[in-house]
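Predict both folds.
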Amino acid sequence: MDQPTLITVAQQTTIEQTIKKSRFIATIAPISSEVAANQVINEVKSSLPKATHHVYAYVLGDHNEITRQSDDGEPSGTAASPVLNVITNDNLHNVIIIVTRFFGGIKLGAGGLIRAYGSSASLVVNQAPRLQRQSLTAYQISLNYDQAEPLMNWLTERVVNIDHVDYGAAVTLTLLLESSDDTFETDLMNQTNGRAQILETMPTTAWIPYQSKN
């Protein structure tokens, strides 16, 4: 069975906006466990100790098996829920968003809080680079040294990624290709006049830059 296409963020990213004198600082980060989520929460709290609220939501698992959220003192339903909605609506997995608020003296009301926390989460999601998990095929090929260097430019453009290169008696490369690519072996033999050796192929998965279908 094919694994679902998962989308996550590539790195921790932070944005800031001011709404009616309140500062909202949103941080998004990839996480692999609840321990990692708590580490990000503690890091943000330690770096912004005078903040009024540290609202967060996170999801873990291929099917969001673990979901956690905290309003951190804001009225129930006005803070963490809109943050979580941004995560799920954007089909993100294994991520945490923390929105830190410095109260500026003007109350926003329930609707204003929902918009402020939701927009802060949306801004940081749109700013963060994304990765997607893709089903791939790993090829291990062997080339003579006189073949390898001229072929590298072609391989770089032809495959998803050159995962590993080993320089021994011959040059052995591990290449990642889209599983639907059914012409690679023929193209490789054409490029090397039939001299390349395909040592092994196997299905695998990898995180690659997200390619929007829009």
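Second protein follows, with its predicted structure tokens after the sequence.
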Amino acid sequence: MPHESPGSPPSDPPGPDASRRSDRARRAILSATRDLVAEVGYTRLTIEGIAAAAGVGKQTIYRWWRSKAAVLFDAILEVNSHEQGSVDLPDTGDLESDLRLVLRGTVAALAEPANDRLQRAIAAEIQTDISVAEELVRRLLRPQLDACAARITLGIRAGQVDESVDADLAVELLFGPIFHRWLLRTGRLDDQFADNILALVLKGLRPH
């Protein structure tokens, strides 16, 4: 059994886990960002406000993010449970089933009240700020759209989709009606709506 030599100082107890402390601070910052942008909008969102709401110093935020837009998009990505470029769609071999899962998930995310407020704040901002719009497409929308297009391309190879179909355009046809209804509040966003869109679009995608 190990023992200390006479006169040697006692072993220091383990200190606080810096990684856990950092992770708690990061999550607090992202949560505060989501709450604030839904409450005051993107234009009035400030690093100072985020820091105060999260209980951290401004320098803590600037250590990890270069701007409030960068913080915001990490906050959105955390809610959507993926990082840039790592979107994976299911591939069960049944294209209709896989796309149904994705579309229903999109509808559910947009219908969730907290996420709805967050997304609407961003939707308003991208009308006048092209840099935020480009960041939204690059970090959030493009990975999702590309992943769906890749899944449709696999459907073409498997003979489930006509070989003449443009996969990117097919994705626009699937998601366009969902975002249109969400943005303009023209009707209910639910599984039935997602399923109806999918059924209609797949009629045009099937091999002729």
